[in-house]
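It is worth pausing here to work through a concrete case rather than discussing structure prediction in the abstract. The textbook approach is simple: state the sequence, then state the predicted structure, then interpret. We follow exactly that order.
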Amino acid sequence: MEHILLVEDDRSYGQFLTKLLTEHGYHVDTCENPIDGIEQLAKDTYDLVISDLVMPNMNGVRFTKAAKSIQPNVKTIILTGKPDDESEVDSINNQIDLYMVKEKGIQVILTYIRLVLERKQPIEENHILYSKANQIELNQKTHQVYKDHECVNLTRKEYELLALFLENKGNVLSREEIIEKVWMMDSNDVEPRVVDVHIKNLRDKLHIFTLVTIRGFGYKWNE
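Step two, the predicted structure:
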């Protein structure tokens, strides 16, 4: 049973989400402020931290950053009732796993949480992904990518796409699967063309010849 820490200063929404997650098999601890949340993280181990964005004393991004300093492998979700580009970019830059709007439907919330929990964690002693054929090295601890021993700058989505393919060599991945795992959204909410554009950019930046299109099915890393 996955262990979730929910930090939410809106008591009614916190009770709603706690009840929802508990009914779906999660073990949930709840705090109403980030200071109590930090104390709870020092006492117990969690698979996922869900935090409201706007809270007294410390905002959700700062809190989840503190949570990761205590438990480096914990997954993180930011909740907000008032989404804006600035806070979303701040979340992305601080490696938050998901920035989620509170008004999402119940099934959407549950799907997002499941997808975040299913994301693979880097393994301490085996955190490098390789492509010998393409001379590519991806470091899951530093989030750096090297091509022929030269560091290459990738966007976050390009990095996550590359990691997904290197973890699934030889498997055909449909656009729907890619959207679900990388964008963590229902495939109906993202244009398939977005995947194609990101893969083209990845091929161009890294000169990849083993990432092939399987017409009618998706993409495959042949190695």
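Step three, interpretation. Residues 124 and 141 are 8 Å apart (CA to CA). Residues 3-118 form a domain with the Rossmann fold fold (CATH 3.40.50.2300).
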